[in-house]
């Protein structure tokens, strides 16, 4: 009952955010820009976004290899798309989609019941992806100073983000440091479930961290493709913003929707990128048109994931 109420509240909040977003823009001009968007560039952007998911799947596969599991990238690509679908239709957004992926992975592939490595692989995969996005955002903060009106505070925030991000990378990719942290975590792990998960990750990946290095390269490629995909969408509506500005706005908006406030981040992601682009000098109608195309692209990817899930549920097969 509680989950039903929370989901209903998130539906109401999503509707409110979308309504507020549309109140702040000229719908007629924005949809006119969408209608005039270059369809071939839109399809190119969609293709690049799917290529990004391929890179993300290769990253995930490398993480599995570090846990001594040989998981085909093709299968992980399908799981990723199904996760996008469930992240939209179920309460909890992306977190729920990831949980469904973990359950399906174990159910479809583990012969001995629950295997924590499947769940931990998702945590590690999402952590590396998030750290990669934060790295790009922090570098843009430092060198481009997007919020110049904050003065020195903008630089301080950028350096703080970069320092925290590098600490996260060190924790993941440096074996010695990871073991030290593991010892510290053990002192408190019994009190916080999150620390329990982190401690489990250090146990699973502590001896094979070198096999995680290629995952970082795939993560950089995947995040870059996602940013390129959104930039292509901006070209399709003639926004005129630079690749750096569009990529920064998109990645920052994506980071902000990690907390599942609305369903699938709908409204917050579109409103976030519109706000940041306007702040960086983009016209409001063009920024709004870009956000609408972003939503359309996201919806198409989710529908592809839903079609994949429907096919395998109907035929009662594990994802292959």
What does this entry look like structurally?
The protein is mostly helical. It has one domain. It is 78% helix and 0% strand. Helix 3 packs antiparallel against helix 10, helix 4 packs across helix 5 and helix 6 packs across helix 11. The longest helix is centred in the last third of the chain and has 31 residues. It is globular, with a radius of gyration of 20 Å.
Short description:
The protein has 320 residues and is mainly alpha-helical. The protein contains 13 helices and no strands. The chain has helices at residues 2-23, 27-35, 39-66, 73-89, 94-109, 116-144, 152-173, 175-186, 193-205, 213-236, 243-256, 268-279, 284-314.
């Amino acid at each position: 009952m509680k989950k039903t109420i929370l989901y209903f509240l998130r539906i109401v909040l999503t509707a409110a955010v979308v309504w507020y977003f549309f109140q702040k823009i000229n719908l007629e001009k924005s949809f006119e820009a969408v209608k005039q968007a270059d369809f071939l560039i839109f399809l190119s952007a969609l293709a690049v976004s799917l290529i990004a998911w391929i890179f993300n799947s290769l990253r995930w596969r490398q993480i599995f290899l570090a846990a001594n599991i040989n998981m085909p990238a093709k299968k992980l690509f399908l799981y990723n798309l199904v996760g996008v679908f469930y992240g939209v239709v179920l309460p909890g957004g992306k977190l729920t989609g990831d949980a469904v992926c973990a359950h399906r992975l174990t159910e479809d592939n583990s012969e001995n019941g629950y295997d924590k490595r499947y769940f931990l692989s998702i945590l590690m995969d999402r952590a590396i992806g998030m750290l990669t996005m934060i790295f790009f955002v922090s570098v843009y903060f430092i060198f481009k100073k997007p919020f110049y009106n904050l003065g020195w505070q903008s630089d301080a925030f950028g350096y703080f983000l970069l320092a925290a991000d590098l600490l996260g990378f060190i924790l993941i990719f440096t074996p010695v440091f990871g073991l030290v942290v593991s010892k510290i975590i053990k002192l408190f792990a019994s009190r916080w479930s999150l620390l329990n998960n982190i401690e489990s990750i250090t146990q699973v990946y502590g001896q094979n961290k070198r096999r995680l290095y290629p995952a970082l390269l795939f993560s950089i490629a995947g995040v870059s493709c996602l940013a390129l995909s959104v930039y292509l969408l901006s070209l399709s509506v003639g926004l005129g913003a630079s690749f750096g500005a569009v990529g920064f706005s998109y990645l920052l908006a994506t980071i902000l929707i990690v907390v599942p406030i609305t369903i699938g981040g709908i409204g917050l992601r579109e409103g976030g990128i519109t706000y940041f682009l306007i702040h960086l000098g983009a016209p409001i109608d063009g920024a709004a048109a870009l956000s609408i195309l972003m939503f359309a692209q996201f919806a198409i990817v989710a529908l592809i994931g839903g079609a994949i899930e429907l096919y395998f549920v109907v035929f009662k097969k594990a994802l292959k």
